[in-house]
Each structure stands twice: as structure tokens, then as C-alpha cells.
Amino acid sequence: MQLIFLLVSVYLMQISSASKAEFVTCGTILKLVNTDLKLRLHSHDVKYGSGSGQQSVTAVDVSDDNNSHWLVKPTMGETCKRGAPIKCNTNIRLQHISTKKNLHSHYFSSPLSGNQEVSCYGDDDGEGDSGDNWTVVCNNDYWRRDTPVKLKHVDTAAYLAGSGRTFGRPISGQGEIVGVSSQYGTYTDWQAKEGLFIHPGDLLPHQNAIHTEL
Predict the structure, then answer these.
(1) What pLDDT, on a 0 to 100 scale, did the predictor assign at position 212?
(2) Which residues constitute the domain of residue 179?
(3) Domain count, the chain
(4) Residue 208 lies in a domain
(5) Which InterPro entries match (predicted)?
(6) Which of 8, 27, 129, 177 is the most buried (most CB within 10 A)?
(7) For residue 171, which of 35, 49, 38 has the smallest C-alpha distance?
(8) Rg for the chain, CA atoms, rounded
């Protein structure tokens, strides 16, 4: 009888963990894949040579690049409970782990396609301005890991997208990331992939977190 009780308890714990693993949460570190282009959102300490001159944002086709990690956090001045699932159609910021700057956009032209420029911006503490805010656009209650979402820039209403064009030196072969006016255009779907997914009850980011290979 005790053995049956133990097996049932383990089964219920597995169901609970699987349920928690379904969502992207506040405090999660992840990589985002453009589902059409099969490229991961990326940044690095390389500035645009035109437009804003801010830190460039690109897309890469490799899965093991450390410059493709992003931290999901609340908008400036707001808070969210670490491990709480991100509700659809709420605003977040995405902080680039390596450089501490936030995914950002504004009314500058992108260097290759002439769409809206997407950059990384902020100080050493990860604080920028309202141009760092993005709305998670999805049709579920929460941002699910197994379902693509769209990211809509709050200030300009542009959607995060790939342009399908690639750079030359010094970032040869990396894809251009832009803002576009319509969510129905191509290359606007993004899905959570590799990461460290924080959930309620996790003591520290490296303890009891459900994660996949970074």
C-alpha cells in the first residue's frame, strides 16, 4: 500500500513539473528562435555604423552561441514575481545577458532593408527607457514555450522580425533584425528554445530550475 502511495505521489509530482515547464516565466533566461528563418535572436558588443550607432542586434543559425541569451524581466519601474508565468498581451523587457543592455527599438532606419532599426540600449545596470518595452502578443492565457509569439514594440507599434538579409563584415552571415508595421508579414514569429526556465518555488536560478541546454 505504501509503495502504491509513493508511486502515485511521484506521478503527480511529474505532472506538476510538466505543467510548470509549459510556460515562459519572469526571470527565465532563454534563446528566441525565428520560426521562419530558423535563426536565434542575438547581440554582441558591435555598434551599428549608421542609424542610432547603438549596439547591433542580429540573428544567428548556431544554437550554442552565448551571445544569444536573453533575460525576461518586467518593464522599468514595474515588478514581477520570479517564476510567475508571463501573461499574453503584457509588457516585458528582454535583457541581453552578455552586455546587460535591453532589446530596444526607435524611429531609425535599419541598415540593410530600411525597415525600423532594432538595437540594444541601456546602462551597466540594465536600465534604459520606454523604447525597451515589448508586448508579448499571443492567443493563450500565458506565453507557452511550445507556441510561437509575436513581440510588439510598445512605443512604435512595430513587430520584431527578421528581414531575410545578411550582413557582411565584421558580422558576416548574421541576419538583420528589424521592426515591421504588420504582424501578418513574414518572419515575425518567435519561439522560446534553449534556456534556464525559472518556476515558483525555485530557490536560486541554479537550484531546482527546469532547464534545457544553454
Answers:
(1) 52
(2) 21-196
(3) 1
(4) no
(5) MIR_dom_sf, MIR_motif
(6) 177
(7) 49
(8) 18
